[in-house]
Amino acid sequence: MRIAYTNVMSDLVPVERVEQKILFIRGEKVLLDSDLAELYGVETGALNRAFKRNLERFPEDFAFQLTEKEDESLRCHFGISKEKGGRRYLPYVFTEQGVAMLSGVLQSPRAVLVNVAIMRTFVKLRKMIASNKDLAQKLAQLEKQYDHQFKMVFDAIRELMTTPPAKSKNPIGFRK
């Protein structure tokens, strides 16, 4: 029996929600154990226990524990506190391959469905990165063809490709 993934996935886990949770640590695109637990609908402790019971399935390029410095950097970046009720250990992160392995370890129908959504998100990100590289190559070819009168235009395009759009600091809505 085949599941209609497209309808179920958009309701269960929107791709945008997964995209927001992907981090870039140690040169890898990863997801935090707590974010995965939330997506899978389990407690972080339960996810980590299942992971630790099956360590042989998770080499270091599938999952690794953050260092204190990396954890501190994340907490500062996202404003996560370390007060009562917070983590008492350093978080684990899972690469794309680690996420794929987790769905088999967790053994639930939801884990399978969520895993499909996460895999599709990773594929979408890879395609976006590849298209950006293609765009950069095409831009370099165009720049070689035209003389330096267009140099400013090419520099501006390159800057737009590398820097994220600035967020407006002006609040939206009525002021009192």
Query: Which structural category fits the helices and strands?
Result: alpha+beta
- Would you tell me the overall average pLDDT? 77
User: How much strand?
Assistant: 5-15%
What does the main sheet amount to?
4 strands, antiparallel
Shape: elongated
Number of helices: 8
How would you describe this structure in keywords?
176 residues; alpha+beta; four-stranded antiparallel β-sheet; 8 helices; 4 strands; disordered N terminus
Explain how this protein is built.
The chain is of the alpha+beta class. It has a domain at 5-126. It contains 8 helices and 4 strands. Strands 1-2-4-3 form a 4-stranded antiparallel β-sheet. α1 (5-12) crosses α7, α3 (33-40) crosses α4 and α6 runs antiparallel to α7. The longest helix has 37 residues, at 109-145. Mean pLDDT is 77; it is low at 1-10.
Topology, element by element:
Layout: H1 5-12, H2 15-21, E1 23-25, E2 28-32, H3 33-40, H4 44-53, E3 63-65, H5 68-78, E4 92-94, H6 96-106, H7 109-145, H8 151-162
What's this model, at a glance?
This protein is of the alpha+beta class. It has a domain at 5-126.
